[in-house]
Every structure is written in structure tokens, then in C-alpha cells.
Amino acid sequence: MTGAGVVGVFFDLDSTMLPAPSLEWRFVGYLLERNQLKSSHAGAWVAQFAREILRSPHDAMDANKRYLAGLRESLARDWSLATTEAAKLSGEAAFFPEALERVAWHQARGHRVCIVSGTLAALARELVTQLPGRVDLVATELETATGYVEERGDCEAVWTGEISGAHMTGLAKARAVWRYAEEHGVNLSASYAYGDRGADLPMLDAVGHPVAVNASKRLARIARENGWETVRWREAAAGAGAHDARAGLARGQAAHGAAR
What we know:
By secondary structure, the protein is an alpha/beta fold. The protein contains ten helices and seven strands. The protein has one domain: HAD superfamily/HAD-like (Rossmann fold, 3-Layer(aba) Sandwich), CATH 3.40.50.1000.
């Protein structure tokens, strides 16, 4: 796409905007701590994970959601509230301070920001509410059904353990960017994308300004060969996270407030 149009900004989430571990691994830890995982579903998940781990560690986790079968959808909200409270007590920030600075930088320019992530949309939606301004989200949706929740003694939405729609990785990310551009009048040749690994390459290739963040060896090599911008974003020091996050937002807003 060339010519006039909205400038879009597409961010991967895990290891790009957020330090490790991934959102989903954090959620798994939350479920284990509260004894929420059913042994039969966890066993099926482990069996599939073991078959896939040597071929593709990322796919072994990303495409396998059987461990969630029968769990209530509202657990995502419970997890978010618990982690937000824990972050307040520890002073840690969820996002890399530099990531928040970039978001504010783009928003001050009037750019349209969208997170495109392979993580679970139910988790990502909770986290996106912590970002300033409008931030759109495209992530991996989970199939739900109405089920009986024993701990509640009532029926509510539960996950089936299957993905609804595309698993948002690789070429699916590029397709999501193309659809988003068409729907919102985005000029991709003037747009930006941020990613950290090979699965983000199609998304990075779809825009005029790709940025490799905390890049894997493969992505770092490709970025060098193509002259892409590369950056290293680091987690804030323990106890300084909330302060650094606010400082990052202030720097971004000030920089582009002056630029407008």
C-alpha cells in the first residue's frame, strides 16, 4: 500500500513488550498454584507437548490448549486481578519501560496501535487495559461453551480446549495486519511493526518500518541483512518497575507532544 493513509503500529506481545515468561506460562503457573488443572486434560496436554517439543518448542505450547478444557473463562479475569495486585505490592511493571515509551511515542503522532499476538486473547485483553490510550488487539481466541462449573455450582462460559479461528502466529499475523489495514485505511508502507522471533517475520515484512526487539539469532541475522532497526529492551530493576514505567510513558508523551 502506498500513498496517504493512517499509519499503523503492530506490536507482538511476549518478549517484545513483556519480559519472559510468556503470558500463557504465567497463567499456567496461576492455575497450578490454585489446583485448577484437571488431571485428565493436563495429561492429554503433556502428551501432545512431548510429541511437539523437539520439533518446535514454541508450537508445542502455542497450538496446544487441551489443558484449558472445562475451565471457566472468568479465570482470565481472576488471574488479571491477582497479578495486578501482586505487581502493586512488588512495584514491578508488566511491560518493558521502553515498550510503553514507544506506544506513547506513536500515539502522540496519531498512529493507530494494535497488538498482534499468538498469546491467548482472554489474557491479552486483560493486560491491554493497562496501556494508555486506544490500543487494538488481535490474538488467539479460544472456543467456549456453556458448562457446569463445580466450584461455583452454576453454569457459565467454559473453554473447550480448542482454538477458535486462526492461531495468531507466522503468516496468520501478516493476514491479520493486511485485514486490519484494509478495515482501517492503514498505509502499510508507512507503518511500523515490532517483533522478537521468526514467527513475527511475516508481520515485520508486511510494513515499511520493521523493528526487531530482543531478537532471536535468526531474526537478528535477517534484520542485519535487510537493514532493519534493532533494539534491546530490558526489564526494569526490582522495585523500580512502576516508576520506570511511568517515566517511559512521560518520555514518550513529551517527545511527541513537542513534535506535533
